[in-house]
Amino acid sequence: MTSRLAFRALLVAALTVAVVFLTLPIVAVFLNTTPARLIDELGTPESRDALLLSLETTSIAMAIIVLVGTPAAYLLGTRRFRGRAVVVTLIELPLVLPPAVAGIALLAAVGPSGILGGLVEDAGIRLVLETAGVVVALVFVASPFYVRQAQTAFAALDPTWMDASRTLGASEARTFARIAIPAATPGLMAGGALALGRALGEFGATLVFAGSFRGITQTVPLAIYDRFATDFDGALALSAVLVLVSAGILLSVKLVGGQEILGGHAAR
Amino acid sequence: MRRLLVVPLAATLLLASCGGDSGSSKPRLTVSSASSLKEALTSCAASASDATVRLSFAGSDELAAQIRQGVKPDVFAAANTKLPDALFAEGKVEKPVAFATNELVLAVPADSVEVRGLSDLGDDDIAIAVGSESVPVGAYTREILGRLPPAQEKAIVANIGSNEPDVKGIVGKLTQGAVDAGFVYASDVRATHGAVRAIRLASALRPDVTYAAAVVDGARQPQAARRYVRGLREGPCADALRQAGFGAPPT
């Protein structure tokens, strides 16, 4: 009996430590910033440029991730084929890459002297030092979060639904669009939220691959870093803005999808 | 198969920890240093006989900001005299000591044909990487650009494609051909072993680049830290600095 109580106490203590440790730095960001300072910060042209650029690049990256990632995840989640495990591992690899390594790898792949650099240049595409390069970096680091979650969501669907749909004469494509996607929506939204958060916060790959220039490649995290040395308060205020935006996204996804999304599965 | 891998791994870890143990009897000295000092200070770190030197590199401005936020390395070595002087004035470090000079150069990828000098930097389709305004290399670069005729300065500034947080970022962009030119220190070009070529600037344009180091106030190893700073002026580290292309400190 006492051992059971002791174990309970241990669990509660562990959760308390985790919650305090994880929220303290975020609380500190807000304790050091007054709301007035935060609003002032939104008014500076540097911050506005960075915010607009972050929203623009993240939106484009998310569109690409969802358009390509959803069918890819459907294939991975609903079919068994030779080499599937290898493909899954390859897609997840960017998850464990340090961001700066991701940037270096992108340079080595599609940078001016990268293995496909000539091809990219011949196609008239400029990535390095350009906004398009930021999008490439975001897609590279964020898409595995989406594909992984989407694949799990599709794999968890009851195959008899899809079979029924096909038996009733619906095409493969129609089954995907009308049955699989609606049924997997909570999982897709959760994956999308993770990818979005990762993309908004991306720093290292963007800096190494695309560079840092106001209005072109300097997203909010890069702008924060740029100001950290000379204007700590400004950097804090801009950090607070980014935290608010990210938290807003996380919350709205939870509200739209109900409790089921983001954690509901694990709790059951 | 797995077990076969584990044995050498464990042995390596054991050896590594033994190495660490024998070193930890000596005081451990933490040195926050400008990125441009990386090769020189790394090569002489082992020669400090009385302390185990742990180096951390970043833009001088970031290191200074960390010290202002209460981070306490033992030594701060900056790529200018301005930042350590400012910290000294704020009572955060002891009196700074100038220990080396460097030269700002225009750097281009070794095989570059587009840029032969400053006069080509304003051309169409030239991309330039510079240090951001707060990092010393960026401040020196803006000093140079400010000494040019306004039209030329404007054309060059229009070609700046990236404001990098430290000098290594500029060199990396150059070696990858991501930019056509950048302003870095002569010692950085030397450290690339031929991947990047330096174009010297007219002496009238060159800013005075002096490196200064200071013992951080509240350092855990003040004695060893002072010895380390002295050693930057004479001793193995001074030799390593000359070897890396740094000039002797002003007297």
Would you write up a description of this structure?
The complex is a heterodimer of chains A (268) and B (251). Chain A has 268 residues and is an all-alpha fold. Chain A has helices at 2-31, 35-43, 45-78, 84-96, 99-110, 117-122, 131-155, 159-167, 172-201, 204-210, 220-228, 232-257, 260-267. Chain A has a domain at 54-97 and 127-203 and 210-267: MetI-like fold, CATH 1.10.3720. Chain A contains 13 helices and no strands. The model of chain A is unreliable at 261-268 (pLDDT under 50). Helix content of chain B is 41%, strand content 22%. Chain B is built from 10 helices and 10 strands. Chain B has a 5-stranded mixed β-sheet, with helices on both faces. Chain B has a 5-stranded mixed β-sheet with strand order 7-6-8-5-9. The interface between A and B is medium-sized, with 24 and 26 residues.
Structure summary:
The complex is a heterodimer of chains A (268) and B (251). Chain A is mainly α and 268 residues long.
Rough outline of chain B: elongated
Number of strands of chain A: 0
The value of Rg of chain A in angstroms is 22 Å
Structure classification of chain B:
alpha/beta
Structural class, from secondary structure content of chain A? mainly alpha
Number of helices of chain B: 10
**Average predicted local confidence, pLDDT of chain B:** 87
- CATH architecture tag of the largest domain in chain B: 3-Layer(aba) Sandwich
Tell me the β content of chain A.
Answer: under 5%
Helix share, percent of chain B: 40-55%
CATH superfamily of the largest domain in chain B: Periplasmic binding protein-like II
Question: Counting H and I runs of at least 4 residues, what is the number of helices of chain A?
Answer: 13
In CATH, the topology of the largest domain in chain B is named D-Maltodextrin-Binding Protein, domain 2
Per the CATH scheme, the topology name of one domain in chain A is: MetI-like fold
Give the C-level CATH assignment of the largest domain in chain B.
Answer: Alpha Beta
What's the CATH first level of one domain in chain A?
Answer: Mainly Alpha
Element-by-element helix/strand order of chain B? HEHEHEHEEEHHEHEHEEHH
